[in-house]
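Tutorial, part two.
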Amino acid sequence: MEIKRPLLLISNDDGYQAKGIRELVEMVSDLGDIIVCAPESARSGFSCAFSAMKPLKLQLREKREGVEVWSCNGTPVDCVKMALAEIVPRTPDMVIGGINHGDNASVNVHYSGTMGVTLEGCMKYIPSVAYSLCDHRDEHGPFKSREQLKEVSGLGETAYQLCAGFLKVSGGDNPLDATWIHPESYELATNILSALGFTPADILDKSKSEEIKSKVEAANAEELARQFDAGVFTVADILGQFVRPGADPRFEGDGPIFKKGVLKLEDLKPGMKLRGTVLNAAPFGLFVDVGAREPGLVHVSCLGPGYVRDPFSEYAVGDVLTVWVLETNCEKGRLSLTMVDPSAARESKRGRGESDGGSRGRRPRRDRGEEQGREEGRDRKRGEEEGDRGSRRERRRRDNRDRDREQDRRPRQKPQPVELKPLTEEMKSGKEPLRSFSDLAQFFNQ
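Running the prediction step on this input gives:
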């Protein structure tokens, strides 16, 4: 019985000629048969993207005992898809990505093409692993500017444009590297600072922070945008970074609600006021966590005093809301909540009832004789309406009868003879199609 060697599929985001993938092939060559399918050039930062418009092409670059090297003109994920569909003779025993330069951990997983290779293999239920090499910092020391990112092996221009705005360099050569301003806007940011009377080094000087804040508040973003031929929103974001350089926008919203204990449904009573966090939004309402074991539902009709057509446009996951307990069902474990204050709703109803003039909103009683007279008047009016309808029906029948008699007296016109075009010899022999049903009748009557 023949024992098959394990089949390994290898790809990366640096291209089939990259040093890292060749080193990886040599490392695992003794473990089984190897098929390499990698991009024909560097495709860093493509994450799990795949091609949808352009046709994909495979080309065999090298073949030797136990190793086949193929190139593809697509993304790293395209390489895995094409290899599984067109190249491999059977399902691989493992998908390997790498070797990639840089740390592919934390948020880097979301845009790394090498990690895209591994994720694609996992979605095909194939064991997958990715390898990375973090040696740049050991050799060159800490980064002094964002421009040094381009010196990292395997980090292409596309990846640099995507990640530069999310990587801050504190204590570097350029003070703007410590802000969220993208390097593409450094020239614009410097010009705006000059117009305000400052330099890039001033934004990190705490002694000038109040002066910069007052100048920024007095500045007009629209005028600056017209002056420097830039977008208004871009200028507004840059001005915000001058006031709070490097501020993390994730901490500007409401903080999380820390639960000291888990509430029980038995402890909740209708009308209790609670604070909760939105866990999920649906067309029929919001699911809010108030500290109970199960989230409560705020129905779309209870989102406020007015009607909310689309909860998605008004609320988002993570919003902190004030809610009131509407109803609890301990047997089914259900909790109904409302965002309308029950006490305010009761006061509103009481006010409407008093304004109507009756006790508790009821209408005053009518006199018995007056009510009887109203009934007789309604019966009389109903009889008159029925008589009018009967006379109208009889009138319509008479008019229709007279119209039919008039039509019977009119002389009927004889139909005008239709001039027939004779059939041609080609039509009779079937070489030419007939023109109409009249031609068909002539054909059968000839």
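The two ends are 83 Å apart (CA to CA). In part three we will examine how such features are distributed along the chain.
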